[in-house]
Write a structure and sequence with these properties.
By secondary structure, the protein is mainly α. The protein has 4 helices and 2 strands; from the N terminus they run H-H-E-E-H-H. Helix 1 packs parallel to helix 3 and helix 2 runs antiparallel to helix 3.
Length: 126
């Protein structure tokens, strides 16, 4: 299997995970694309350095040959798949009550804030 085919399969599998399995649908959210743009910038910087300085080399027979800032396009596809998979799992586990909500919290519902001030300090027996 070529590096190109593996990268394309990774993107397809993670897109299916996002849209059909976990149903987080991050691909349709502006916030995801903004976050991905930030990650992509730094990926290009690091990948460009690693491949431009020839620390990492690729077999030309295994890649398409299209490069962006020295990085093969396949690296960008794998990076996209990794970011999407990580964020999809993060959102999904948050819906289960993991990340911020605690057990039993439902997706899309905000927690009820605690009462503050004098009413909160009074004991129930008064």
């Amino acid at each position: 299997m070529t590096y190109t085919l593996a990268a394309l399969l990774a993107v397809a599998a993670v897109a299916a995970l996002d849209l059909a399995v976990l149903r987080t649908r991050l691909l349709g959210r502006r916030a995801f694309w903004t976050a991905y743009g930030i990650v992509l910038f730094f990926q290009l910087v690091v990948n460009g350095l690693l491949t431009g300085l020839r620390i990492v080399r690729y077999d030309p027979a295994e890649i398409v040959g299209l490069r962006i800032v020295y990085a093969p396009v396949e690296d960008l596809l794998f990076g996209f798949a990794l970011v999407l998979a990580t964020l999809s799992l993060w959102v999904w586990t948050g819906r289960l009550g993991g990340a911020r909500g605690g057990p039993g919290r439902r997706a899309g519902r905000r927690p009820v804030p605690r009462r503050r001030g004098a009413a909160a300090r009074r004991s129930p027996g008064r």
